[in-house]
Amino acid sequence: MKKICVLLAILIVIGVPVASLGMDNTVYVTRAEFIKDILIAANIDVDEVLESSFEDVTDPHYISYIETAYENGIISGYGERFNPNENITKEQAVIIIVNTFGEKTALKGIPQEDIDRALSFSDHSDISGWAKPYIAYALNVGLVKEDSSAFNPQIHLTSDQAESLISEAESAHEKLFTREGLSASDMMMLTSEKSAAYNTYKQRGTMAVNMQMKIEGLPQEEIDSNQEIAALLGEGMDMYIDMEIQAQTPDKIYIKEVIKAGTIEEDMDQEVEVFMDGSIMYTKMAGTDKWVMQDVSSIVSTAQSISGNDPYKVLQISNDELELFKEYARFEGDVELGDTEYYIINIYIDKDAYRKYYMEIMEKTMDSVIQLQTETVQFQENTDFNPDQYKQMMMQLISQMEVETEYKFYINKETKGFEKMWISQDVYMPMEQLMSMVKATVGEDAPDFHVNMITHTEGEFIYYDFDGETNFPEIRPEDIMDTNQPLQMEN
Q1: Which 3-state string (H, E, C) describes the chain?
Q2: Kind of pairing, strands 200-216 and 237-248?
Q3: Distance CA 146, CA 148 (A)
Q4: At 204, is the pLDDT very low, low, confident or very high (cuts 50, 70, 90)?
Q5: pTM of the full structure
Q6: Mean pLDDT, rounded, for 160-184
Q7: Per-residue pLDDT tens for 389-425?
Q8: CA-CA-CA-CA torsion for 156, 160, 163, 164, nearest 10 degrees?
Q9: Crossing angle (nearest 10°) for helices 387-400 and 432-442
Q10: pLDDT-derived band of residue 137, with 50, 70 and 90 as boundaries?
Q11: Could you tell me the sign of the dihedral formed by the alpha carbons of 355, 357, 363, 367, in that order?
């Protein structure tokens, strides 16, 4: 032992590295350490917790960090284990970087050719299949930079390499995904708060709607004999909805819609007006000069309890929507329209997220909606109306819907207020449950066919005249329809 110590002392004096004798003093980073470092770099709030979702995460120093990362979808682990003390590999680190600093929705549907182009490394076959979309995305947007011919996905990261990866990703995130130090979701929250402070505002725009039906099992002669069905099965039915809105805090909103049909009846325009004054809703349908008055206090209170916001503040995004948008909001390139500069936030909601969010909303509001409908003349005159059956039918229809929605919000750089919105929505609705109920009602004579409804909607709206004057309808008692009398339509 004495000889070994003397030898080491001599080697140190003459400058021979101790590591050359097989003693590796390289410091590698564990998975737990990397999680802690990246959460700190990303300024993610870490909640103090005492228990972990993973059975092998027992170190009190890391439990809160790993649990926060798990709750935020940054990590998923390996079933009930996380392997916190294993040295992290480069590909594992990149996945965590993307989940922390990247856009989650951008990972869906990356074309295989884009992945292959981004991963043209000499060792591309060493990259795990589940990691390839993450690494391709990180390289394409600049969250990770790689100039060498090999990617080395399985190497363990040293502390210097891990620090460099996190630092580069943090800088890229600031440049690509923030404006004025705010993420897209934080900017949406700020803009929502500012827009909700306006006492009045106006909105106008047009929605273009195309509806098509796909019918299976109906004889062609029956289709050809019905002009409307034939049109729907051909090019579909086009409608254009011109909309004007005026709103005043705290409880007034007036909506005027002019619906123009495009294919079946070119000259058919219908005007619909809705005026909400507190908990009273007035509706004037096309063909009548009378307003239908309804008490909607139950729906208003339900909406308020769900969203946490005043339902009349249309420009204010609800808490539930902000929570949904948080995962999907991203900045696009800034634009200049006239003399005004805008940030553009894009939000794409896929069908799975839409179904989950709106099913929860409908479950909470459906009872209030049914109660409101039972108070209308049509439903009061229909003795066969069954509220429970109606609720079941509506929930089944919604659960079957496949909806994809994309928004673009234009935010004034100076005021941080909403001034323009573009929306596109595709709805695919298989109506098998509805047809089953129809057949059960009609009986054996019901034809055996299937119906699918496909709807594409696209529109653009501008918001203007903030804190300006409003012009609401003046509704006199004689203008209100007597719901005990049959509805009289104008010619």
Answers
A1: CHHHHHHHHHHHHHCCCHHHHCCCCCCECEHHHHHHHHHHHCCCCCCCCCCCCCCCCCCHHHHHHHHHHHHCCCCCCECCECCCCCECEHHHHHHHHHHHHCCHHHHCCCCHHHHHHHCCCCCHHHCCHHHHHHHHHHHHHCCCCCCCCCCCCCCECEHHHHHHHHHHHHHHHHHHHEECCEEHHHHHHHHHHHHHCCCEEEEEEEEEEEEEEEEECCCHHHHHCCHHHHHHHCCCEEEEEEEEEEEECCCEEEEEEEEEECCCCCCCEEEEEEEEECCEEEEECCCCCCEEEEECHHHHHHHHHHHCCCCCCCCCCCHHHHHHHCCCEEEEEEEEECCEEEEEEEEEECHHHHHHHHHHHHHHHHHHHHHHHHCCHHHHHCCCCCHHHHHHHHHHHHHHCEEEEEEEEEEECCCCCEEEEEEEEEEEEECHHHHHHHHHHHCCCCCCCEEEEEEEEEEEEEEECCCCCCCCCCCCHHHECCCCCCCCCCC
A2: antiparallel
A3: 6
A4: very high
A5: 0.70
A6: 91
A7: 777 777 777 777 888 999 999 999 999 999 999 999 9
A8: -100
A9: 150
A10: very high
A11: negative
Residue 221: which residues within 8 A CB-CB, separation 6 or more?
Answer: none
Those residues with Cβ within 8 angstroms of residue 265's Cβ, 6 or more apart along the chain or in another chain? none
The token pair that represents 1 in the structure block: 């032992």
Taking the C-alpha atoms of residue 400 and residue 404, their distance in angstroms, rounded to an integer, is 13
- Residue 387 banded pLDDT, cuts 50, 70, 90: confident
Better-predicted residue by pLDDT, 87 or 397: 87
- Answer yes or no: is pLDDT of 491 > 70: no
Tell me the residue type at 177. Answer: F
Residue pLDDT, tens place only, 260-281: 876 444 556 789 999 999 889 9
User: CB neighbours of 88 closer than 8 A, spacing ≥ 6?
Assistant: 28, 29, 30, 31, 33, 34, 156, 157, 162
How far apart CA 157 and CA 163 sit, in angstroms, is: 9
**pLDDT-based confidence at residue 377 (cuts at 50, 70, 90):** low
